[in-house]
Structure formats: structure tokens, C-alpha cells
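Worked problem 6 (solution included).
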Amino acid sequence: QVQLVESGGGLVHLGGSLRLSCAASASIFSIDGMGWYRQAPGKQRELVATITSGGSATYADSVKGRFTISRDNAKNTVYLQMNSLKSEDTAVYYCNVRTVWGRREYWGQGTQVTVSS
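Solution. The predicted structure is:
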């Protein structure tokens, strides 16, 4: 059974915007940190943004000022608002969820984001 479901990926124009969503199953309890990673062809998976249970966010330098991570704890959902998209943002984006004490970790199926010139 799928436990993390991502949506919102697609093709966008250079400089455009896109909003990704990741909904965690209600069966995942005691969620602590949530975040987004991405992986481009031939490159290592890299951290994009994280957010704590209290709403404190951190970002990779490459997306700082352009991306915003947020969460809705009541819905077990994390979002990634992406603005001013660049060609180098093209990648498969993966949602990540961790429970308290680092007991469990979950990954989304990945959603493709392609920025066209």
C-alpha cells in the first residue's frame, strides 16, 4: 500500500512556478521532519528543503529565495512552492518523511519537474 503520494510535477516555462504536494498516509504517525530531495540524470540525489514539526525551514543554497516549503500537520501533507524556475531545477523530486526518534523514514514515488527554455 502506498504511504506517500506526490503530485504537482510537470512541464513549466523558464521563470515559471510550480507547487508540489506530498500526502502521507494516516497510518504514518508521530511525524517529525519533512522534506524534499531531487535527483537529475547522472547526478546524486540532493537535499532541496526541510521543515520541522514546528515549521522551521532550511533550504539548499541553490533554491534559497525561490522555493518555499510548508506543511499542514492536520493533513500529514508537505508542500514545495517553486518560483523563478531555472533549467537546473529540472529533476525528479522526492518527498521524505521521518518520524520522531528517527524510528521510521518514508519516501515518495518521485515526480518529474521539467523546466523548458
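Discussion: Residues 19 and 81 are 4 Å apart (CA to CA).
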